[in-house]
Write a structure and sequence with these properties.
The structure is a homodimer. The first copy, chain A, has a 7-stranded mixed beta sheet with strand order 2-10-9-8-5-3-4, with helices on both faces. In chain A, strands 11-14-13 form a 3-stranded antiparallel beta sheet, with helices on one face. Chain A contains 14 helices and 14 strands. In chain A, a hairpin with a 4-residue loop joins strand 6 and strand 7. In chain A, 42% of the residues lie in helices and 14% in strands. Chain A starts with 10 loop residues before the first strand and ends in an 8-residue tail after the last helix. In chain A, helix 2 crosses helix 10, helix 10 crosses helix 11 and helix 11 runs antiparallel to helix 14. By secondary structure, chain A is an alpha/beta fold. The first copy, chain A, folds into 2 domains: 132 residues, Aspartate Aminotransferase, domain 1 (Alpha-Beta Complex); 234 residues, Type I PLP-dependent aspartate aminotransferase-like (Major domain) (Aspartate Aminotransferase, domain 2). The interface between A and B is large, with 56 and 56 residues.
């Protein structure tokens, strides 16, 4: 096996932080702006407006200088008081974060783990809710980054509302990659972050409560929240001109403004279509390599593709070889999936040739680890998908 | 009065966000790093190490992707449970934030407001503590940005410890500008942020609990905290290699690494000396203009100088004219001080000629508003201080 090479060209192909378009990175090098100066206020107001487009909502999208987990925490801190009956429907590592958060805030928690690699099935959720009457809030996940599974949030929302509860969805890794039509579907809260399909650095978390969620938050006021208090940020954002209650992470807002402009230019539906194509090509490559997709093989799982690694090899070495000797950063499995899967990302600033690069490196790593693989076969299958679609699935310049 | 000119060269002279050295800004334009890749982990580890130098502590400095207020919130969320007897000793807007936080977390709060523009006097704090037995935690402020006052944290710590309580200090605007020798003085928690004297963009908050504070936090576990939980972050930072429990704001860590390297190169004591000189020159300029310093005229108030504006003019127009027509951003007064003071910052990446620029623009704005001022007199007085000191008080390149 070759030595690690510190001089090798780097290709970031991870599911978060994801690659960032140069013009998004570069705006951060501009001289910093005072957060109450008109030049920044204009950016801030435009970002708040553009976020609504991506969230597909008329709700105010509340922004927090924090990781995506900060946006998630706000959805617990504002809806849960000690003893609130909460159901967390998880199917992987990030779903489990909801359970940890709910416990931290003293919820009376029912944690239903649908299993890593499974979907949260609406019919099963319906049953869980009927078995556990009085649930007030359900927390679940749009795209479970740890497994590649994408849940049917529209159907889950209907089930939750039929049971008289609110639903809060972690869309950190899915927002802007796969459809989540908050207002059309009636989702009560969507939590997200800046560092996935929004093509920005980590550092901003979001939550977009609807009126029902805000009303509930009013009932739980004074429960030990300040920085993540929805009313505090809402009040600031609704001022004219809008004003963040805490000094905002100025360069990341500047970056987000550029990135959201790129999404606007490409068109949100085209962005979704690009992710569909990237996901399809990746799955075709995996099949051509005679490997299995981890989890349900799903036309909607277009954020990250998890691949079951051959049991004959030391799977933990796949991302290590790719990173150390080819300069390609992908993620392996987390927790109980460590060494068992590799995760090929296609979230945000990804085009066709990023997938081909990743697949090519993946093939080479498998070969180095002694797995019998026909070099170029996965790449070829993905190429065929791209050619057939008639577009090179390029992310915008 | 001239019209606002959108094409004018900009000079950011505010107390936060403060100006950022170009090489600190520019590192953010580098391609983003995966937060668990060796290249980032090396930066993260170095930042954690360098922060200890600036905090003058052997404690682990816990880092949160958040505003400085997030660091402050952590010092309340981890030390206060409902009913905890807390005393907040405030002397301005940011001290009042401690009181809001303590209330949000259900503290049994004694809020002693020493008055905007006053110091928190150790002898008075001693009296307050004797009048209110059983106080468990005292919250106060190193540098009150809203008024320019710098408190004697060493003496306050002694008073608090004699009363058997812990002390947590908001050093958001003072850390790295004026001495705060956490370990020598025995301060239990110092909270800070990236966007003031640390010469970085906003987006990182810090807290450096000592063992006594960590022990107390263990007793308040499960009180509704997750993102700001000290143990969670401590556990991650103590891993080998260190690992943030939440995706960190990668570019701001990269920026902080560069900025802390600059502070290291200049030497922390030299940095303090530079701020002393900048503060002295600013006060000399104010006096030469026949204006008064707001608050005690203090050899230690070297973060921001608040100037009482002549009552004959519309004071709110001073920062407005300076920004709109000269491109110089300074801050006016907040809340009850709106229109009554102007705040001249010297926090972080400031050199002699930044003070001269600010004073020159300030003189011109006063003249435009009809106040009788001898142009150049404030500038001249500051120049004399710089020449006498024999150094141009330049910030490092």
């Amino acid at each position: 096996m070759p030595e690690a090479n510190p001089y090798i060209k780097q290709y970031l192909m991870a599911a978060g932080p994801t690659p960032i378009p140069p013009k998004v990175s570069q705006i951060q090098a501009e001289p910093i702006l005072y957060h109450r100066a008109p030049a920044f206020v204009a950016i801030y107001a435009r970002v708040l407006d553009r976020l609504k487009t991506v969230f597909q909502t008329q709700n105010e999208v509340l922004t927090f200088s924090a990781s995506g987990s900060g946006g998630m925490e706000s959805a617990v801190a504002n809806l849960v008081k000690p003893g609130t009956k909460v159901l967390v429907a998880s199917c992987g590592k990030f779903g489990e974060r909801w359970a940890e958060l709910a416990e931290a805030y003293g919820a009376d928690l029912v944690h239903w783990d649908a299993g890593w690699g499974n979907r949260v099935e609406p019919s099963e959720l319906e049953q869980k809710l009927s078995e556990n009457p009085g649930i007030e809030v359900v927390y679940t996940t749009l795209s479970e980054t740890s497994t590649g599974v994408v849940n049917d949030v529209q159907a889950l929302t209907e089930v939750v509302h039929n049971a008289g509860a609110l639903i809060a969805v972690d869309a950190v890794s899915g927002l802007g990659a796969v459809p989540l039509r908050q207002d059309d579907w009636g989702v009560d809260v969507v939590a997200a972050g800046s560092q996935k399909a929004l093509m920005c650095p980590p550092g901003l978390g979001f939550a977009s409560p609807n009126q029902a969620a805000l009303d509930r938050a009013a009932e739980t006021a004074g429960q030990g929240r300040y920085y993540f208090d929805w009313q505090k940020t809402l009040k600031g954002q609704k001022k004219d001109p809008p004003d963040s209650p805490f000094t905002p992470a100025v360069p990341i807002f500047m970056a987000l403004d550029v990135a959201l402009g790129m999404i606007e230019d490409e068109g949100l539906e085209n962005v979704f279509e690009r992710h569909r194509l990237l996901g399809r090509a990746t799955r075709a490559a995996v099949k051509a390599l005679d490997l299995e997709i981890f989890g349900p093989e799903d036309e909607n799982s277009n954020v990250v593709t998890a691949v079951k690694l051959p049991e004959s090899i030391d799977g933990a070495k796949v991302p290590k070889i790719m990173r150390d000797t080819y300069g390609i950063t992908i993620a392996g499995g987390q927790n109980q999936l460590k060494g068992k899967i590799a995760r090929i990302a296609h979230t945000g600033y990804f085009g066709a040739f990023d997938i081909l690069t990743t697949v090519a490196g993946f093939e080479m790593a498998l070969r180095e680890l002694g797995h019998d693989v026909e070099l170029g076969s996965g790449v070829g299958a993905a190429q065929a998908v791209f050619l057939e679609a008639g577009v090179p699935a390029g992310a915008p310049a």
